[in-house]
Each structure stands twice: as C-alpha cells, then as structure tokens.
Amino acid sequence: MVNINGNIVNSDEATINYDNRGTYYGDGIFETMRVLDGTPIFFEAHYFRLMAGMRILRMDIPDTFTPEFIETSIKELLVKNELDTNHARVRLTVWRNNGGFYTPLDNSVSYSISAGSLDHAFELSNKPRVADLFKDHYVQSGLLSTIKSSQKMVNILAGRFALENDFQEMFLLNEKKMITEGISGNLFIRTGDTVKTPPVLDGCLNGIMREQVIQQLKRMLNYIIVEETVTPFELQRADEIFTTNVIHGITSVTRYRKKEFTNTLATELLALFRIKIFS
To answer: pLDDT: is 170 or 20 the higher one?
Structure first.
C-alpha cells in the first residue's frame, strides 16, 4: 500500500495525473529513509533537508507538513504494510502541482509515501567493488546538486554505464572535472590518517549519512577529516575509498583502475554505527 496525498491505497490503485510536473519536468524532490522497527532513522535530518530543498525549489510548503505529521504518516503506512517490526526503507516524494509549462503557475505540491522491506542492517560486503570515472556527463556544482531533486540523469547514466561495462561504482565529476560523489552515495577517501570528502558546493549531495560520518570522524582521535575538493589524481594515491548513504551505510571500493584498497576505516565506522543505530 502507498500514501497518495494522505490517502492510503493499494499499490495497483495508486494513480497520479499523467502530466504531473514530476514526470514532465522532473519538478520534484524526495527523501529515502531507513527505518528500524517502525521508526525512521535520522528523521529530523531528513525532514530539515526536505524543507530546505523545497525552499530552494521555491515550492509552497503546506502548513500540514510538520515533522509530527510526516513521521506519523510514515508510521501509519509501515503498519498497513506490516513493515513496522523490522528493517525497511521509505521514500517520500514531493512534486509541484500541474500548471504552466517550464514556468510553474501553481507552487502548491502533492506527495506520495511508499515503503519496502530491507533484509539487513549495515553490512560491509565482501564482494569486489570496482570503480572508474564517469566522463560522459558532468554534475553541475552549486546548490541545486546538493538536494535530492527528481533530476538525477547523470547518476542514472552513470549507473547504466557501470552495468554495461562490469563496474560496480562510478565516480561522478563536476564541470571542473573534480570528483563529486558515487552513483548513489557520498565519497570519502583516506590517505594515511587524513580523510577527505568533497564539499557540497562542489556538486555532491548534502547526504544524511555523509554528515553522520563526518561528525563521527571528528570524534575519533586517530583520523583527520577535511572537506576539500578531490581531484581524480588523488584516487590512485589513496589507501581507502568508500561511499555512504542511509540505506547501505558504508560501501568500500576495492579497486580503481590498477589500485587496490583496504577497508580498515570502513570496517571501524560500520562497527560504531551498528552499535549506535541498531543496538
């Protein structure tokens, strides 16, 4: 079952207008959340990122869109789908209502909430994860790339390229040919005891898990965390590379071109987050 504008209906009965602006122009925004036992993890951070993104997109925020309303709506849907006693994922999608062509004539919004099961907590895969640079298209640096808008064509095409060329990860570049992120996660590289991640204004998503990892690293005395532009040349000099998102937690890259990497820090961080979140 899914929630469409407050109405919970069967998935096969959930319909929206064919000419909605999300489909026509990618005029939408979304949040994907990990849920444990019916409660969204890092909910407050997701909520405030959604509100900030809607403001950047100049959408009207309904008076009803309070944290309590959205969290209650999520929990009600999880109960309806019998997903409130284990791991699950939830997607909240918001799109601007019909009216106009490129220029919207109506800033009010519609929304949907969907949910599905997850079969694991954060786990570090032992499968090879080989990465390369995606050079066909660039992410544009700036505020629009920091939000989870419905316009993710560079990520989509990078994913297809990876699938067709037997890669498990692609590193996206901005228009200055600097590294921004992976296909579906923020990027961290460790060289010795220094860990770098691109600043959000270089074009990477303002990731929820990214911020959690940064804050955790600041509490660890054996590492130095810096938010600085990452060049492609730094990838082959790194000792370790991993990506982060709230669904998978931390995912190590095992090889980039001829360079193979360890997963020392990723293993340490995952152990800490498993205790913090799932214990």
So the answer is: 170
